[in-house]
Amino acid sequence: MSTTAAAPATAGHDAGHAHPELSFLRKWVFSTDHKVIGIQYLFSCIAMFLVGGLLALMVRWQVAYPAGAKPSEEKVQEWRDQGLSGAALNQAIAEFDEDKPFPILGELLWGEKLSKADINAGEVGEAGLFGNSNGMMPNEWYNVAFTMHASVMIFLVIIPILTGAFGNYVIPLQLGAKDMAFPFLNGLSYWTWFSALLVLVASFFVDPAGIGAGAGWTSYPPLSGVVSPSAGAGQTLWCIGVILGGTSSIMGSMNYITTIVNLRAPGLTLFRMPLTTWAAFITSILQLFATPVLSSAMAMLLFDRHMGTSFFLPEGLIFSEAPVPNAGGGQVILWQHIFWFYSHPAVYIMILPAMGIVSDVIAVWSRKPIFGYRPMVFSMSAIAGLGFVVWGHHMFQSGMNPVLGTTFMISTIMIALPSAVKVFNWLGTLWGGQITFSPPLLFALGFVSMFVIGGLSGIYMANAPFDIFIHDTYFIVAHIHYVLFTGSVMGIFAGIYHWYPKMFGRHMSDGLGKIHFWLTFSFMNGVFFPMHIIGLGGYPRRYASFRSYDFLQTYEGMNVFMTWCAIGLGLSQLFFLWNFLWSLVAGKKPTSDNPWHACSLEWSTQTPPPHGNWIGAVPTAYHGPYEYSHPNCKDEFAPQWMPMQRNDGGGGGASPTAPAVAASSAPPTAPH
Amino acid sequence: MQQVRAEHFDAAWKWWLPPNHSSFGEEIDLMYIWIFWITMVTFVVVEGVMVYFCFKYRRNPARKATYIAGSHKLEVAWTVIPAIILVALGVASTNTWAKIKNSSDPSYPQEFQTEVKIAAQQFAWNVTYPGTDRKFDTADDFMLPNILNVPVELKDGAGNVTSEENVRIMLSSKDVIHSLFIPVLRVKQDAVPGYIGNVWFDCDRATYAGPDGKHLTGDQTYSEDGKTLLDWEEAYEIACAELCGLGHSGMRMQLKVVPRAAWEAWVKVKSDEAKKRAEGG
Amino acid sequence: MERRGIMKLANPRLTWALALTITLVAVAAACGGGDSRSREAIRGRAKKNANAVAGGGAETAGNPKKIDPANAGTISGVVKWEGAKPSMETIDMSGTPECAHVVKEMITQENIVVNDDNTVRFAFVSIDTADVYDPPSEAAVIDQVGCRYVPHVFALMSGQKLKIKSSDSTGHNVHYMPFGDVNEEENFAMTTAGTRERTFTSNDWIKFKCDLHPWMGAWCAVRTHPFFAVTGTDGKFTIANVPAGTHKLVLKHEVLGEQSVTVTVEAGKTATTEFTLKK
User: Fold this and answer.
1) What does the mean pLDDT of chain A come to?
2) Which residues 125-164 in chain C show a CB within 8 A of chain A?
């Protein structure tokens, strides 16, 4: 390692100071530059997005094609018509074989697929990597698949890509800061998160029986709290992984809060910050308060599992016909309170930054100031505040005191309000704009339109009496995916398409981006919308097979439809992947540092920005971040870093927006 | 698979709620209808406005975007109106909620004609009946896995029921959390270890009788050995709705809603067996 | 004028190393530690019994012994029942129509099965020895038919393949709980007809159950030697090729516990013995 390694990497941030050359390892791997760390997060998260997506496909495949397919009545009739009867007919039924292993991977993981005749004869085929169940996914592994799908998507994709990738990359640039307040902590946060990634991935492989963590991402004890065949070493690693991920979140959020409070450019008052940064600020506060609760819950769970405590284990538990020795005095519901005290805010941690990104993207691409900038900020704060007092709606049917149920119902219903205000404000932003349907805007519009569905379906869940029926059915699966996939993930795509030129100094292909959008938009509705319908029919979630229930047989066709849409959705992401990677080397180079004619500070520096972000002094913010199409402005847009040039030739001083003052303590005057 | 149950394969169920057979289920369904229409209207209006804006304000070099930074009046309007609707929805559903779940609420039933205990375990429901003496922890109690039979008084041959008969289930769990879910009765309650939860329901019709698809009638006779019940094909399904491990999707129980005479004959047979065993026969 | 909040942390290299170490230790702890300890703790009660059950259970090191027919005799005998016939609980499968359709007749639990001639079925009889023999190449089979295990009690040698078969189209899960220390507890689903193979490696007494159908239970005895038998519908057992000498013959029954007698086997001859069980 070079001699510079021991010195703080940010030592050279003073204006005009030449940077000493860093070793490759310090520059690109153990970097402390927020841009490098942001890109590290971005690449890791995209990789994990593929892993989580593959797991989702495996889940979908199992749901559509569980083992034990039986011939339909028409089929039997067909055999009869062919003259089969008696023993011959019975044999035809017994040898009917429509079980479909997961393509390619199925037989690799779960052994050779034998013919039904061989199975009935008691034959045993070649074993696969995870044991032998004739190539069909066993129930116990199905539980692992959906648990890890959720865990990967939440802890390794959506939260880190929003707070880690965008937070890291965009916040200091939008603030006019040369780096994060704690660059070293920033790097540490990434590598702690990366170790969480390794530990969570390892959880697939540690159990001798090939079973990872399979208690659901909510990991309710006692299922997760007692070491048993269904919750072995994989579950332990899962807890450790989540603690590591949480630790990383706490480091990151402290860093963002400090940076936003202390490192704003001259003139950049809080109410002149772009909404992406506002969202990151509010999200960080949420994370800082909520994540320690999750980490302590996980620690308690680990103690219950391995150290003989019984935080969550009540007296008289019987597992495998033997009493659990350390059980006694614990409360099962305590876990749910603690867990949801984190995990409900976590839902907002996963959506607020996307809301911020979408706000910026809509403003830029419709050439309009954000409609109701302050109401947007206040509604995000309200979502965050209310987010802490609604966790009980996950527990309506848990046996929690029903009086609390009423309370949580009201608070939950109220959280629909700020969400509605945001949607109306986005519509207001489009109103009278000059809308260009670029990929970022398409994804942002996709976010808004689909978030409406996710928000409205939330009202069904919030209504405690109706929740009795749809609780833990596919309705909630539909709801969460409408918020997190068609919401957050759309926001993430919008952000990637929007900031890609700034990050990599190249453009992504617009055409491929549009194909990616339309395919994703169509398929995701094909996957997630029917979930509302089967949820309404009472289809319980987390079912490895619908075959045991008469009332679920009718949904087989819909399950198959959703699964093929999911496969289409997965394949559509290849357009993105190709576009993303190919554009890194062959994308068109932007003609200017501000190719979108945007106003916020990140566009004032070079593309891509140099180490230290600005060569020379950081810019000064002269007004708010959304001065598009201002009637008194000479230009079509007024960048934040320049005083507004008035039509009448005047300077920025007489602008109806903010006076060009540098003091951050001046009362902000947002343009409304 | 079992015989096709006409009602369960009702085409309407595929796209809508399953048929409902409990009194509070009607209130729940009504709540759903209200929310459905409110959200549908909102959805159509919001998406409609969005699509309209996208079309109307698409890029046009001849025009400059209108600078609108916000509107105080609009903000107030679209905060207050939804707030009123949402609070009204919330208030409207508190009574139903209390009636179903809150045992200290006056609208909660005071009397239960039938009581059973269910202890859930991985992956079965152990149903304990109090036997002929209607008291638990006596020699004639009997336990059956995955079989829930409850009585009703029949009014007519169509399986309709004369009066409300409330069934109470004392729900517990031996190992992990399970959840008792009866779709057609709109019942769902977690079975939590270390805690006994109360669930109640009534049912407005008996389950179908026999493969011929005819309904039971009140004056039908039943064999003394109680075997008639075993031969019934028709039942409502009960599912486990909380992940409990690898057998979660197979943790199925049947609910048979049985005319009282038949039920009592059946209970007597089972109680006598249990007593005989308890006496060490 | 630039505000900076850059905090100088401790030596970065040291901190990186520390973070990495913590991670590795955590991973190692999770993989290697704790896990089996707790699993044993849960089954603590069972484990204590197991040592008694398994008849010492110690594996002898070294080469497996070979059966020498020239120097071996046979033990045969019968297990008798004393007292009134116990009545076993009937199994009501009406809540599980898939099974009820397969099994038409009324069936009962098989915890104590007394044959018509007052002998006891499903008693496991074995000689008590720590000797190790080669397992046979053919597999032992347990089947799940009509939501019951067939047979209800069976025995196999350590290292011998066990085929766990399901002939039912309805789903079962196979949850086996070894009482010994060496074999691992396992619980897996068989959602449709099929066969799985498992092997046990040590003397054991293993309970099989299906958690979906709580009445389903079976018992499996594992021995390192071939000198065991399970009584049938006539209550009789025959153990062939027993090395000549004096042996402790142990009977084990799932409900009625254990008994033992001493038997002297002479080469080429049959030693007879008798057990009597009562409630």
Assistant:
1) 89
2) 141, 163
Q: Do B190 and A397 touch (CB under 8 A)?
A: yes
Label residue A252 by pLDDT band (50, 70, 90). Answer: very high
Q: Is the pLDDT of residue A390 over 70?
A: yes
CA of B254 to nearest chain C CA: how many angstroms apart?
Answer: 5
Chain A within 8 Å of B30 (Cβ-Cβ)? no
**C257's tokens:** 């516990």
| C26 with A8: Cβ contact below 8 A | no
CATH number, span B114-278:
2.60.40.420
Phi, psi values for residue B197, rounded to 5°: -100, 145
Q: Where are the domains of chain C?
A: 12-42, 51-278
pLDDT value, residue B182 = 94
Q: Which of C221, C211, C156 is nearest to C186 (CA)?
A: C211
In chain B, list all ranges with CATH 2.60.40.420: 114-278
| CATH number for region A139-316+323-586 | 1.20.210.10
pLDDT at B206 over 80: no
Answer whether residue B69 shows pLDDT above 70.
Answer: yes
- Does C16 contact chain A (CB < 8 Å)? yes
pLDDT, block means (10 residues), chain C with 279 residues: 37 56 60 45 42 42 78 92 84 79 76 90 92 92 92 94 90 91 88 89 93 92 94 92 92 92 91 90
CATH number assigned to the domain covering B20-101: 1.10.287.90
Nearest chain A alpha carbon to C187:
A229
**Cβ <8 Å between B2 and C97:** yes
Closest residue in chain C to residue A230, using alpha carbons only:
C187
- Cα gap B235→B207, rounded to integer Å: 6
DSSP code per residue over chain C: ---------S-HHHHHHHHHHHHHHHHHHHHHSSHHHHHHHHTHHHHHHHHHHTTT-PPPPSSPB---GGGEEEEEEEEEEESSPPPPPEE--TT-HHHHHH--S-EE--SSEE-TTSBEES-EEEE-----BPPPSSPEEEEEETTEEESSEEEEETT-EEEEEE--SS-EEEEEEESSSSSPPEEEEE-SSEEEEEE--S-EEEEEE-SSSTT-EEEEEEESSS-EEE--TT-EEEEEEEESEEEEEEEEETTTEEEEEEEEE-TT-EEEEEEEEE-
What are the tokens at A596?
């979108």
Stretch B40-59: mean pLDDT: 95
CATH class of C51-278: mainly beta
B15 in contact with A at a CB cutoff of 8 Å?
A: yes
Residue A386 has what pLDDT?
93
Query: CB–CB of A199 and C27 under 8 A?
Result: yes
What mean pLDDT, rounded, does chain B reach? 83
Among the listed residues C263, C278, C277, C260, the one whose alpha carbon sits nearest the alpha carbon of residue C56: C260
User: Which one of C87, C92, C107, C190 would you mutate to disrupt binding with B, by most B Cβ within 10 Å of its Cβ?
Assistant: C92
Q: Show which of residues 126-165 on chain B sit within 8 Å of chain A, judged by CB atoms.
A: none
When scoring B176, B251, B255 by the number of chain A Cβ atoms within 10 A, the one with the most, hence best to mutate, is: B176
Local confidence band at B19 (pLDDT 50, 70, 90 cut-offs) = confident
User: Cβ–Cβ of C169/A70 closer than 8 Å?
Assistant: yes
- State the nearest Cα–Cα gap between C243 and chain B, in angstroms: 43
**Confidence at A114, pLDDT banded by 50, 70, 90:** confident
Strand partners, B169: B116, B199
Q: CA-nearest residue of chain B to C90?
A: B273
Residue that has been written with the tokens 């029921």 in this structure: B161
Do A555 and B176 lie within an 8 Å CB cutoff?
Answer: no
Residue A310, token pair as written in the block? 């019984």
Q: Which residues of B touch C191 (CB under 8 A)?
A: 250
